[in-house]
Amino acid sequence: MQRSSSPDPIDRAPGESAADSMADSATDARAIPKRLPLLVLLAALLLTALVWQDTRQRVAAEAEGRFALRVEELHRRFENQIQAYVQVTRSAAALFTAYPEVKRAEWNRFVDGLHLAERFPAVTAVAFARVIDQWTGPELVTEARMDGLRGFRIWPDTAGPMRLVTLYAAPVNDRTLRTLGYDLLAEPVRRAAAEQARDSGEPTVVRVVGPRLDEGEPSSPSFLVFQAVYRDGQRPATQEQRRVAFAGLVMTPIQVAPLAESVFGRMGDVAATVFEGQGDFPLYRSRPEASDRPLLTASRDLALVNRVWSVQYESRSSFEEGLDHWKPTLVLATGLSLSLLLSTLLWALAATRHRALVIAGRITASLRRRETELDLLFNQAPLGIALIGPDARITDCNPAFARTVGVARDGLIGTDTRLRAPDPAVIAAIDSAIAGESVRLEVDRLLLAGGRHSHFSLHLQPVSTPGDPPFVMAFVEDIGDKRRAEQHVHYLAHYDPLTGLPNRVLLFDRIAQAAREARRDGARVAVLFIDLDRFKIINDSLGHSFGDEVLRSVARRLHGAMRPSDTVGRLGGDEFLIVVPNIETPGVAAAVAEKVMGQLAAPFTIGGRNFVVSPSIGISLFPDDAEDAEGLIRCADIAMYNAKDAGRNAYRFVTREMGARSRERLDLEAALRRALQNRELFLVYQPQLRISDDLVVGVEALLRWRHPDAGLIMPNRFLPVAEETGLIQAIGDWVLDEVCAQIRRWRDQIGLTVPVAVNVSAQQFRDGQLPAKVAAALDRSGLQGWELEIEVTEGTLIDDIPSAIATLRALKQRGCLIALDDFGTGYSSLSYLHRFPIDKLKIDRSFIHDLEQDGTGDSIPRAIVGLGRSLGLSVVAEGVETEAQLQLLRSLKCESFQGYLFSRPVLAEELEPILALRATHGRHHTPVTEAAERESV
Ligand SMILES: Nc1nc2c(ncn2[C@@H]2O[C@@H]3COP(=O)(O)O[C@H]4[C@@H](O)[C@H](n5cnc6c(=O)[nH]c(N)nc65)O[C@@H]4COP(=O)(O)O[C@H]3[C@H]2O)c(=O)[nH]1
Description:
Elements: H1 18-98, H2 104-114, H3 116-119, E1 126-133, H4 136-146, E2 162-170, H5 174-179, H6 188-200, E3 204-208, E4 222-230, H7 239-245, E5 246-255, H8 256-265, E6 270-276, E7 282-285, E8 297-304, E9 307-315, H9 317-321, H10 326-380, E10 384-388, E11 394-397, H11 399-405, H12 409-412, H13 417-420, H14 424-434, E12 439-443, E13 456-463, E14 471-478, H15 480-494, H16 504-521, E15 524-532, H17 535-542, H18 544-561, E16 567-572, E17 575-583, H19 586-601, E18 604-606, E19 609-611, E20 615-622, H20 629-645, E21 650-653, H21 656-677, E22 681-690, E23 696-707, E24 711-713, H22 715-725, H23 727-750, E25 756-759, H24 762-766, H25 770-781, E26 788-793, H26 794-798, H27 801-813, E27 817-823, H28 830-833, E28 840-843, H29 845-851, H30 859-871, E29 874-877, H31 883-891, E30 896-897, H32 908-916, H33 930-936
Parallel strand pairs: 20-21, 23-25, 25-26, 26-27, 27-28, 28-29, 29-30
Antiparallel strand pairs: 1-2, 1-5, 3-4, 4-5, 6-7, 6-9, 8-9, 10-11, 10-14, 12-13, 13-14, 15-17, 15-20, 16-17, 18-19, 22-23, 22-30, 23-24
Helix pairs in contact: 1-8, 1-10, 17-18, 18-19, 21-22, 22-23, 23-25, 25-27
The structure holds ligand C2E.
Ligand C2E is lined by residues 686, 702-703, 714-716, 719, 735, 759-761, 791, 821-822, 845, 878-881, 898-900, 905.
Organism: Azospirillum himalayense
Subcellular location: Membrane
Protein name: EAL domain-containing protein
C-alpha cells in the first residue's frame, strides 16, 4: 500500500472537484447527441409530411383517372343504348320505305319480330300514326274497323284540316289498343314534335307527361321518339317537299328508367342520375346508397337527337374500396412511427451515454475523495498505524505511530521490527502476523532503543490482496491513560478516598479471601471492629475538615502499626476494621487490639491542638463466631458496643451470648417486617401534668409491638432494628397518621385542647421528607399544627445542625410544637440550643432517677429548668415515679412532669376519662399502675 500526498495528477483549478470536471466534459460530449434526436425527429416528420402529401395526390389522381375511365365507359354504353332505342324507331320507319302500304298485320308482325320485351324492355310500344284529312279520315276508320277494331274512332274530337291519327300500335294489348285513334296533333307538345319530325325527316324526341302512348306508367318518366314517314318511302330533299310528302309518323314511347337501368342498374361501383337538360328533377336515379358523400363525382352531357340530357356520376363504396386511399394514411403512420422510433433510439443512446459519463464522473470523484480521506485518516488518525513488509521491516507509518513509539518517522522506515522489538512476545507476534495470523497483545514498550515506556495495545493484522505482496498492518494505541483511569476507578471502588485505606467492598473481599485460606490451613481469622469514642463531638465542635484530618491521622497510625499481611480498612464514619489472617489463637487478636489501643493512646496534634482519641474495639473470629464476612463484621460490631458499654477505650471478644443475641436480632428483623402488615403495632399514650395544678398539659404517644408469640415488645428493643433495616420510615409514617387520627377523634369526642407528642427517629428526621409528611398527616385528619408535638433527641439534631434547623423551621411553619427529648444525656450545649426553634425541653428520666440521691443529684435538672426558663421554653421531667421526685421537681420550679407516678402509657380509650376531667382532677386520683398498663396492652 503506497501512501501519496502528491497533488492530483489531473490538472484542474483549485476547488474544482473531479465530479465537476467529469460532468463538464460529459456536457461537451453530449451537446450534439442531445440535440440530434430532436433534429432527426423534425427532419423525419417533414419527410413524412412530404411523402404523405405526394401519396395523397397520386392516389387522388389515380382515383380520378380510374373514375373518369369508368364514367366514360358507362356513358358510352348509355349513349349506345339510347341510340339503339332510337334505332328501333328508325327501323320501323324504314319499313315504310320498303312497303309504303304497310298493313296492320305486317306492322304487328314486324314489331313482334323486334322482341321488344327481351331486347328493348324500355320500349312499351311501337306505333304508327297516319296523316288524314277530312276525306281520308272515314276511310281510315273503315279500314281499322275492317281490321277488327270495331270501336275504332278518332279522338279527341277536334276539327282540324289535317289529323295525325294513331293507326297501328304493337305489341297488341289493352294498353296499346287504348291508344289507337288518338290524334297526335290534338296536344301541342306532341304536335310540335311531330311537325319537327315531319320537317326534318330525322328522329325527334319529346318528353311525355300524362297518359297517351305511355299511358299506364304515369309516374315513370318517358320520352317519345318520332320518325316521319313520307309517301313514296323516301325522304324528300327539302322541307317543303317533306311537308307535302308527309304520310305519317312512327313513334316509340321509351321509359327512361328501364333504359337507364339496363346500363346502370347492374353497376355497383358507380351511381348515375339522369337529368333532362340541366334540370333539377332527375329522370332516373340508380339505386341510392346509404353512404353520405361520394368520394368522386363527374357530370357528362348526352345529345339525344334534338335534346340534351346530362348524367351525374358518383363513385360508390365498392368503387372506392378498390382505390388505394389507405395508402396516404399508411404512409403517414409509418412515417410518424419511424420518426419517433428513430429519435427515441437516438435519445436513449444519448441519455445512456450521458448517464454513463455522469456515473463515471461520480465514481472517479468518489475514488479521489476516498483516496483523500484515506490519506487524512492515515496521517491524522490518533491511532498509530505502521505497515510491515514480509521481511518484518517497517515500510511506512503515520505520524501517530511515530509519536507513540517516540521515534521520528524517517528513523522508523526500514527498521527491522524483529531486531528492535523489546520482548520475545512482540517478535513472536510479528512472525505470526507475517504468517497470516491476526494477533493482539499489550506491551509496555514497543522499541528497544529510543522508544518510550507506557502501556500499548498492539494489533497486528495480516493483509493480502491478489497481485500484491502480503504485508502486516500494525495498529498501536497508547492505553496508558486508559489503564490509569481504570486503575483509578478500581481504586475508587475499593479504597476509601479520605484515608486511602481499603473500603467496605475490599474489606469484604479480604475477609472472604482470608477465610478461604484459614479454612484450608485450619487457622483462624480475626476481625477487629474499631469505633472512635466521642468522635462525633470532635467533628461537630471542631468542624468536618478537622474531623477528616483526625480520621486520616488515625488511619496512618493503624496502617503503620500493622503487618503487611493484615488489612486495615475504613467502613465509613469513624469505624475502622482490621483483618488479621491466619492466627492460631484468639490471644493474637487481643494483642492486635492492644496494639491498636497503644497506637492511639499517644495524643494527636492537629491544627495546633492536642487531643486524645480512644477506640472501642469488638473482635470476632472465623470460624468461631461466623463463617462469612457479613456475619463476622456484624458480630464484631456487637462486640464493639459491648466494649463501649464497658466504658470505652476497651476491646471485647464476641461472647456466646452475643452470638445468640445477634441471631435473635435477625429473627426480630424478619418478624418486624411482618408486624406492620399484620397490624401488630399499636400506640399507647402517657399524659404530662402541670406540677402546680395537676392539669393535663400534654400527652406523649409511644409505640408498642404485640408479637404473636413473644407478646409485648418494647420500642427500645425493636426500634434499633427498625432503624438499621430502614423499616423505621414506614413505621414512622404509620405512627404519624395514627396519632393524628387519634387526636382528631379526641378533639371531636372530648374536646381535647392539649398537644399530643410523637417521637421521631433520627432517620425519619434526616431524610428531608418529614415536614411534608407531617403536614400531609395533619391535613388528612384536619388538624392544626399546634395539636401535634414533634419529639426529637439531641443526638438527632446534632449530626447536621444547619439542615436540622431547616427541618425544624419547616415544621414550625406548619405550626407544630417541638420538644427536645432526653435532654442532658447527649451533647447539650448552650452554644447551639438557642439556634433551634424548640418549645419544650424534656429532662431525661435518668436524671430524675438520680434526684433522690444525696449530693448533686439535682444539679442537672436544676440547670435544665434554669436553662428552659432563660430561653422561654417549657420543661417536662420524664420518668417521675415517686412523690419525693415530684416534690423535688416542684421545689426546682419544674413546670410539668410525666411518669408512672400519675400514669403509665395506656391505650387511648383508657386515657379518655383522664383527659375529659383534666381541668379538675389531681394526681390523687387512682394512678394507672404498671399492672394496669400490662393488662391494658
Ligand atoms: N422507668 C420509667 N419509665 C417511664 C416512666 N414514665 C415513662 N416512662 C418511659 O419513658 C419513655 C419515654 O419515652 P422517650 O424518652 O421518648 O423514649 C422513647 C422513644 O425514644 C422511643 N419511642 C417510643 N415510641 C416511639 C415512636 O413511636 N417513634 C419513635 N421514633 N420512637 C419511639 O422509645 C423510647 C422508649 O419508649 P418507652 O419504652 O415507651 O418508654 C417511655 C416510657 O414508657 C417512669 O415513671 N419510669
